[in-house]
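Narrative of activities, Objective 1.

The group set out to show that a structural description can be obtained from nothing but a protein's sequence at a throughput compatible with the screening campaign. Below is one input-output pair from the validation batch, recorded exactly as produced.
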Amino acid sequence: MGGLNLEVFKFGMYLMFPIGIMFYFGTNLDQRFSVPDFWPKPENANKVPYDRDEIHEELERLRARRLYLREKRLASEAQQQQQQNNDQE
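Output recorded for this entry:
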């Protein structure tokens, strides 16, 4: 059996180990764990429209984008269908 010195050492380790880990990882966080340009700049972020005109403009933009992507998808599907028909012949 170890005795009193061993118990004091174990108690000291139980206290100092978590405190040492917290001190090591808790200091200098901004320089150690930071990723440059992680958050987008305000001019690159989405802006929520609040005015009635801004809302209508955003809806028109979304509608135009949706229609453009639909036309692109339909053209791609038609081209694939045409290629399949040519391959079957």
